[in-house]
């Protein structure tokens, strides 16, 4: 939103709701949310490494001194939203069942292996992940899971957890605080950056956007980028529908996924950061249209994105 600066630190949204923002919102620089009740708090997502998460906890200390964090919610399985969990050994850690399942194969080892890759992909990974430190990273997995919907009482504040995935990942969840009109979306929203469809289907992500719009939130805290409102949800929805239309046209014309991702002119969406993610987004559409296609693994996807970002072998 125009009246809330995109600066690092804790931002008060009203009625016990806060956003912890991490500019510039690119790879690994994710946001978190804090809901403060009468005698306890809920943290929505931890950050990409332990030092970042520790700095966030210290930055929240004045607010949480009388209302300690007793619940941590992880929106999805990407490491920049749960690799700091180990700083909350006494809290209950909540995530969707699908997210908990994905976490078994989404630890820091995968990220570190990307940095060790040869050629362009390795250079790309080493550059974007250089600020992060996973030396002593042993993230805790969820202690509780849910499916569909769960309502939590956080010191008298109602927080609704809504599972809206699969979309970005297999089990994306949002946290909705009706009394404050605040929605924490995890990576169902990238503001100023390009979304990436790790799981799909794309249309389910569109439906997730529709669900978020129906809530009519006042403040929307995205997984990456500045705090927004419903206009930010519409922007992401528009991008997804654009990708679906453009990729489908090229599939019908007999283009390969590689040909399509190079052929699509992004127009206004090309102004968003991380535009190379179109590589995976096109592949996601092709896999929906032809499930017999071979599904590339994370390393191959990353290599394709790196190539479009100018990191070629």
TrEMBL record:
Pfam hit, one: Lactamase_B
Residue ranges of every copy of the Metallo-beta-lactamase domain listed in the record: 29-224
Protein name: Glyoxylase, beta-lactamase superfamily II
Biological source species: Geodermatophilus aquaeductus
Source organism phylogeny: Bacteria, Bacillati, Actinomycetota, Actinomycetes, Geodermatophilales
């Amino acid at each position: 939103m125009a009246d809330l600066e995109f600066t690092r630190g804790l931002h008060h949204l009203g009625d016990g709701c806060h956003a912890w923002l991490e500019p510039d919102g690119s790879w690994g620089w994710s946001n978190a949310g804090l809901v403060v009740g009468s005698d306890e708090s809920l943290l929505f997502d931890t950050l990409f490494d332990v030092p970042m998460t520790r700095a966030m906890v210290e930055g929240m200390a004045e607010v949480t001194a009388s209302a300690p964090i007793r619940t941590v919610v992880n929106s999805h399985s990407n490491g920049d939203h749960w690799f700091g969990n180990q700083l909350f050994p006494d809290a209950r850690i909540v995530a969707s069942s699908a997210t908990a399942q994905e976490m078994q194969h989404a630890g820091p080892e995968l990220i570190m292996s990307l940095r060790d890759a040869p050629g362009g992909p390795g250079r790309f990974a080493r550059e974007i992940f250089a600020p992060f430190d996973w030396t002593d990273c042993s993230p805790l997995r969820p202690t509780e899971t849910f499916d569909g919907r769960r309502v939590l009482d956080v010191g008298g504040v109602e927080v609704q957890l809504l599972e809206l995935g699969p979309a970005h990942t297999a089990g994306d969840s949002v946290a909705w605080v009706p009394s404050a009109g605040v929605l924490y979306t995890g990576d169902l929203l990238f503001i100023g950056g390009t979304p990436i469809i790790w799981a799909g289907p794309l249309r389910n992500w569109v439906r997730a956007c529709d669900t978020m719009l129906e809530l009519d939130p006042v403040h929307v805290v995205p997984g990456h980028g500045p705090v927004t409102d419903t206009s930010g949800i519409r922007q992401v929805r528009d991008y997804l529908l654009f990708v679906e239309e453009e990729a489908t046209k090229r599939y019908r014309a007999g283009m390969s996924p590689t040909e399509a991702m190079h052929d699509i002119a992004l127009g206004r969406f090309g102004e968003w950061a991380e535009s190379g993610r179109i590589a995976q987004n096109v592949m996601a559409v092709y896999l929906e249209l032809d499930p017999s296609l071979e599904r590339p693994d994370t390393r191959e996807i990353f290599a394709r994105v790196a190539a479009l970002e100018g990191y070629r072998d």
